[in-house]
Every structure is written in C-alpha cells, then in structure tokens.
Amino acid sequence: MSDDARFMALALSLGRRGQGAVWPNPAVGCVIVQQGRIVGRGWTQPGGRPHAEPQALRQAGPAAQGATVYVTLEPCAHTGKTPPCADALVAAKPARVVIACTDSDPRVSGKGIAILRAAGIIVDVGVLEDEARADHLGFFLRVDEGRPMVTLKLASSFDGRIATASGESQWITAPPARRVVHAMRSRHDAVMVGGGTVRQDDPSLTVRDLGTTRQPTRIAVSNGLDIPLNGTLARTANDISLILCHGPKAPAELIETWESLGATLISCTPKMGQIDADDMLQQLGRHGLTRIFCEGGGGLAATLLKADLVDQLVGFTAGLALGADGLPAIAPLQLPRLAQAPRFTLTETSRIGPDLLHIWARGNTPA
User: Any binding-site annotation on 185?
Assistant: First the structure.
C-alpha cells in the first residue's frame, strides 16, 4: 500500500467515527502529514461541526505549512454556519492536498479544488475513491436524489424465517450478533421498523451497552398509525427522537395524541393502499437524514425492495431451521420472473459468535 493510500485509509477510519452523529453533513476524516509524520487528525464532530479540516489544522498548528493534507471529501467552498474549509486550508499553506472524492453538492462541486489550486497548492483527487464514496453514500444520495441511504438488516434462521409459526422471535441470533447490530445502529442516523414489528416486539430501537449517550432517531412506519399508545415508543417519544410515517387516512385524533407525546408525524402519499416508499424517503431526506438502518419486518422489507430503495443488505443467519410455516424475513414480492428479482453484490462475510454475518451492496448480475 502506498503512503497516500495508507494515510487516506486512516482519514477514512477517522471519518467513520462521525457516522450517525453528523447528519445532514457528511462524516469526513482528515489527516495532516509533515515529512512522513502525522501532525494533525480530525473528523466531523457531532451535529456536523466543526468540520474535519479545521480540527486537524488546529492540532497541526504551524506544522501544517508545507505539509500534505489527506481529506476524504472535497473541502467545502461555501459559508454556512462555519467559514469554508477550503479557505482554512489555503491560510494554513500546505504544499499538497489529497482528496478521496469530489463533492456533488453544487455549492462545493469543483469549487473547493479550484480555491486550493488557485492558491498554488498541489491537489490530487481519487485516492481510495471507491471506499470514500461508499462511506459518503448517504450524503451523496440526499444531495443527488433527495433521499437517505437505506441499510436493510435481517436476522433470520438458515431457511430465511424471522419467527416461528406462533410468532416467537426472541432470540434467533446469539448475543454477539445482537451487540454488532447495536454498533450498526450507532453508525446510522435513524433506525426504522414497520408497525407490525412495533406491535409484535414493543422495541425501544435504541443503542445499548456500548457506552454511548447519543441515540439514533427512531422511525416507525404504519399506514393507519396503528402503534400502541401504551408501548415503549410512546413512553419515550419525548426523550428520544421519534418519527411516525403514516398514510393520509390516519385518524386525526391519533396524530394529535402522538404529537402531544413528542413524536414527529409525517403524512406520506399512498400507493396501492400502502405508504409510497419513495415519497416517505424523500420526506425523511428533507428532515436531513442521510443513513437509515431498517430492521423490518417482512412487509416493510418487501416494500423497500420492490421500490428499489435498498442500498445495502445486512444479513445475520443463525444455524437453525424454522420451516415453511415460520414467518418469512421478506413478505411476498410477487415476482413473475427471476430476472426481476432485486440483486446485490456480496461485499463481506464474517463469523459473529455462532452466527454468520453477510453484507451485500446493491447491483449484481447473475453469472
């Protein structure tokens, strides 16, 4: 691995520390190197600022002059709540800036690079670009398509079931897998489930046992707003952010009740008697969300897959079989032909305790 790749890999790892905590901003990492020695490190802080570059420049101090700066996304070129990072870099006078990928935000795209080059700084773009684009996918999707990235997580038996015929589902996977799920939740802006999952499991949808105080936003999707008012979500709505996505025919008195409890209500466009997933994600994007971790159930999973809105599949497979009478992980997709099935590319597999973790990215073609 070249020095550029090694230092950019470190910048990417730093940037990931901000995932789930910086939306609607991107989770950027920055490393400053002077004569082979790291003199500054930074990543986007909770709430989206300070940005990564000022953090690293503050740590580097005068050592930033003549140094090489590695940053995972093109430095911003516009004044928002903070001055442009491109200007801060120019003032620090590094000799070279290495950028993993350009920013598609029209306020930045190409402008940050132009500011640096106009100041006589050498700029190289594209080091570990694929890795950076994967890390910033949620930010790019919100900028380019108006919606957040969706990770669909399914924990199932070997034969793809998430509960027995009687509805028993806790627990199919072992404690190590459940701990990994909490870590995944913490790296997303929000955790989403369908109304059926809320009624069946009464989940809290929080991150636990990781020593973190920040909690992701909780999202429950229910066309008729059929969410128990005596459940955990209702009891905690005023303490931990809760969004309820419902259809236009949800009872007005229920909407008022949930709002009085502290929840945010989003009325979504209907589609064939259900919530239109495209409209729902567009509205969640307008709320600033960039990364959503969907944990089912089967109906919501099928809705997102049919709408081609799943960007990453995360599967935890346990070594037990529940049979055809068990509840399937994904509701019927009604596919007449195999060629119409949504396909994904395997990117990672690992053993988590007694269970198997497999991660898939959107897009694949049969061999």
Answer: yes
Interacting residues of 121 by C-beta distance below 8 A, sequence separation 6+: 89, 90, 94, 95, 96, 97
Please name every residue paired with 32 in a beta bridge, in sequence order, or none if there are none: 40, 69
Q: Give the SS3 label for residue 245.
A: strand
Catalytic, out of 53, 253, 256, 259: 53
The overall average pLDDT reported for the chain is: 94
**What gap in Å lies between CA 23 and CA 290, rounded to an integer?**
6
Q: What is the pLDDT of residues 189-247, one digit of tens each?
A: 999 999 999 998 899 999 998 888 899 999 999 999 999 999 999 999 999 999 999 99
Residue 205 known to bind ligand: yes
DSSP character for 112? H
The SS3 assignment for 229 reads coil
pTM: 0.93
Active-site residue flag, 53: yes
100 neighbors 128 (Cβ within 8 angstroms): yes
Q: Which tokens hold the place of 31?
A: 């490393």
**Is 157 a known ligand-binding residue?**
no
CA dihedral 292, 101, 93, 84 (to 10 degrees): -40
Is 226 known to sit in a ligand binding site?
Answer: no
Residues 6+ apart with CB under 8 A from 255: 225, 246, 265
